[in-house]
UniProtKB/TrEMBL annotation:
It comes from the Bacteria. It comes from Streptomyces tagetis. Residues 131-151 are annotated as: Disordered. This is PhzF family phenazine biosynthesis protein.
Length: 231
């Protein structure tokens, strides 16, 4: 079996929650796209990262849905692991900074896979949303405050203010038929929500993951979180 690290990304303050990802530090050991797809499926993580150049931070990320141009968990986790100033992904060059217990990436909203953003009335409404059955489209028809992604909806990002003046948000994500029933932490959706609202956010997603965001000059957005090495 190819050596790989397991990281938990967007953890709560106690180190729990977040998403597990796999990182193959020496991507040359799995050189082909089909071999990488097979290994990613075997490992079973939401995102499996193959590092093709650790000094430049060149990444190839595989998810159950394919190879995204930008993957939030993968970028935040691998940036922490490699300790590099930037990452190179299919969408472009992602800025990186480490700030105490948080690792931050800076990317453009248009690089993120599309999500449908649904503004719910309150956190209780977010919590009450049912998890879609396998193969079922999440969320149904657009509701008030819902921003439709272009083309076929790959999933739903439902959110509500917990404390609007403080920028505190409650959110849940449902990737839909192409992915799992519910995603515990979704960095790219947080990036899109931040761009839509135009303000810094402190997001609690899923059962307890924490994602921090902040808009930056020139249309860029930062997304940050805690990373923990599982093994």
């Amino acid at each position: 079996m190819t050596d790989y690290d397991v990281l938990r990304v967007f953890c709560a303050p106690n180190g729990g929650y977040g998403n597990e990802i796999g990182v193959v530090r020496d991507g040359s050991r799995v050189p082909g796209t089909e071999e990488r797809r097979e290994l990613a499926a075997k490992l079973g993580f939401g995102e499996t990262v193959f590092v093709d150049d650790p000094e430049r931070g060149v990444l190839d990320v595989h998810t159950p849905a394919g190879r995204p141009p930008l993957a939030g968990d993968a970028c935040v986790g691998t940036a922490w692991l490699l300790d590099v100033p930037e990452l190179v992904v299919p969408a472009g060059t992602v800025g990186v900074r480490l700030d105490g217990e948080f690792t931050w990436i800076e990317a453009r909203p248009e690089w993120a896979p599309p999500h449908t953003l649904r503004h719910c009335a309150d956190a209780a409404e977010v919590d009450a949303l049912p998890v879609p059955a396998p193969g079922e489209e999440p969320g149904g028809a657009p509701g008030e405050g819902q921003v439709e992604a272009p083309g076929k909806r790959p999933g739903l990002y439902a959110w509500a203010w917990e404390d609007e003046p403080a920028g505190r948000v409650r959110a849940r994500a449902f990737p839909g038929p192409a992915g799992t029933g519910e995603d515990e932490a979704t960095g790219t959706a947080a990036l899109l929500l931040t761009a839509s609202l135009g303000r810094a956010l402190n997001i609690t997603q899923g059962t307890g993951s924490q994602l921090l965001t902040a808009p930056q000059p020139g249309g860029w957005v930062e997304v940050g979180g805690r990373v923990r090495l599982e093994r």
